[in-house]
Amino acid sequence: TRDLRPQAYVLHLDGKEFRARDFAPSALARWQDEVLQALELIGQWSGDPSLLAVENLESYPPEFVTPIVERMPISRCVDVGHLWLDGHDALRHLQSALHRTRVVHIHGVNERDHVSLAHSEPEALDAVISILLKARFDGVLTLEIFELPDFETSVASFLDSVERCQ
Question: What is d(CA 127, CA 77) in angstroms, rounded to the nearest whole number?
Answer without folding.
Answer: 18
